[in-house]
Write a structure and sequence with these properties.
Layout lengths: L3 E6 L2 E4 L2 E4 L1 E5 L2 E6 L6 E6 L4 E4 L1 E6 L12 H10 L2 E6 L10 H10 L6 E7 L8 H7 L3 E5 L11 H13 L3 E5 L3 H8 L6 H7 L2 H18 L2 E4 L5 H14 L4 E5 L1 H5 L2 H7 L12 H12 L5 E2 L8 H4 L16 H14 L4 H15 L17 E5 L4 E2 L18 E2 L2 E7 L2 E5 L2 E2 L14
Parallel strand pairs: 1-6, 2-7, 8-9, 9-10, 10-11, 11-12, 12-13, 13-14, 14-15
Antiparallel strand pairs: 1-4, 2-3, 4-5, 7-16, 16-19, 17-18, 19-20, 20-21
Helix pairs in contact: 4-7, 5-6, 7-8, 8-11, 13-14
């Protein structure tokens, strides 16, 4: 009888100890051995042939849109896109229908996720209207509680009193509050100027408003003793303020996320892409991009998550050029690894740095490590085999997502995913999604 279900040979394997030229033995969905292994001991051998063997990416910010908004995306399409991009765990945002703000909403999402090809974790919603549900959601295994300062009435915690109460409830279960700062009343005033062009949208959503809404929320969270994960930090000003908060206001209790697009794209890309490049916070200046990279190097950034936010194209072009009447957001999972890996390499970062920010750090922060986020004996056998020997051009027409548009269209990248494995099962290989509904499983901090 074979010792392993699969042995992967010939790859440059990225482990917590660095890049090693070793073989990997997989048995019963786990990494069973790492070292000098014989292919004769395996039921199947996968020859990585000098390619990178990475732990599967953990995307900690994904709007799957399922249940409720499946004309935009669903678990089948989103997880197929993730599998094709080397993402083996997606963390799903709660702004669905029903909202993930109760035990019933949790179970509705788990039911929808039976279509998933990759593993998934769930992020709960915390508002003044569901404080009593917070303990139950924590017990069910949500990895965060998302606190919206903007959006539909059903999502937001608008007043300071409401925010303080929400942070108290999240702190009461030792949860993490994911906070996206925004100031809708101020945005509305500034939106009255102009005609909704990309430049108008950038002007009406300046970094000052992002930080202006973040600081009072942080004060409420600090008073409540609640951990905060700052979502979508987008500017030089944001990075400077975040560094202050980390050092002085909430040391050890304040972490930050940056998106791939805010690290790699600018307002110029927004102008060129038009509706396909419309997202919030908007794409910012080259100086802001550089400041975010400095923040990453200085330890101010903890995780990189996509904010995968697909919409139907008709929703993107509503308004006939007036983006104020269109939906902000674009697909991100299929460009995540190629775009960010390429940027890391160009800037002289190590491949292990890429793995830390996209995989190990989110797994640690949200309670999944070392089950997820590492190639180590005993961890789940989640793998992405990546060819970094050539360049490729991003073509949204090939996306598995229902949203086949992107501001990255035509961009050259230096990473291409050849194979994705989830808990020892190959779900993407040679350009084809070979996994199926049910291959993905719910992942909680308890197991």
């Amino acid at each position: 009888m074979a010792s392993y279900d699969i042995v992967i040979t010939g790859g440059r394997v990225v482990t917590p100890d660095g890049i090693q030229q070793v073989s990997i033995g997989v048995r019963d969905g786990k990494f069973a051995a790492i070292g000098e292994l014989s292919a004769k001991d395996a039921t199947r051998t996968i020859a990585a042939e000098g390619r990178l063997v990475l732990p599967g990416v953990v995307d900690s910010h994904v709007h799957v849109r399922d249940p409720g908004y499946t004309h935009k995306e669903d678990f089948a399409s989103c997880s197929a896109a993730a599998a094709a991009a080397g993402i083996t765990t997606i963390m799903c945002m709660p702004n669905t229908d029903p909202l993930l703000d109760s035990a019933a909403g949790f179970h509705a999402t788990v039911d929808a996720a039976k279509k998933s090809i990759v593993d998934f974790s769930l992020q709960g919603l915390a508002t003044p209207r569901n404080l009593d549900a917070v303990p139950a959601l924590k017990e069910l295994g949500v990895v965060t509680f998302e606190v919206f300062l903007a959006g539909p009435e059903s999502l937001i915690s608008g007043t300071r009193t409401e925010q303080h109460a929400v942070f108290q409830a999240v702190a009461g279960v030792d949860g993490i509050a994911g906070v996206y700062p925004d100031d809708p009343p101020a945005n509305a005033v500034l939106d009255k100027v102009g005609s909704g062009t990309p430049d108008d949208l950038v002007r009406s959503h300046p970094p000052e408003l992002e930080i202006g809404s973040l600081l009072p929320a942080v004060a409420m969270a600090a008073a409540a003793g609640c951990r905060v994960h700052y979502r979508q930090m987008s500017s030089a000003l944001s990075a400077r303020v975040a560094a202050w908060i980390r050092a002085h206001t909430m040391p050890g209790r304040f972490t930050t996320e940056v998106t791939p697009h805010h690290l790699t794209l600018t307002t110029d890309d927004f102008r060129e892409a038009g509706p396909a490049g419309y997202i919030m916070p908007p794409l910012r200046s080259r100086d802001d991009v550089e400041a975010l990279w400095h923040a990453l190097g200085d330890g101010v950034v903890d995780t990189i998550g996509t904010d995968h936010a697909p919409h139907a194209w008709v929703e993107k072009i509503a308004g006939d050029g007036d983006l104020r009447r269109a939906m902000p957001g674009f697909p991100g999972v299929e460009t995540f690894l190629p775009a960010i890996f390429t940027a890391f390499v160009k800037r002289g970062y190590a491949v292990t740095d890429f793995v830390n920010f996209t995989t190990a750090n989110p797994a640690r922060l949200f309670g999944l490590y070392p089950r997820k986020g590492a190639i180590a004996v005993g961890s789940d056998a989640d793998i992405a085999i990546v060819d970094d020997s050539d360049t490729w051009t991003i073509d949204p027409s090939t996306f598995r997502s229902k949203a086949q548009y992107s501001p990255y269209a035509g961009h050259e990248v230096s990473a291409h995913v050849d194979l994705t494995m989830v808990r020892g099962k190959v779900v993407f290989e040679n350009g084809e999604v070979v996994g199926g509904a049910g291959d993905g499983c719910l992942q909680t901090p308890f197991g």
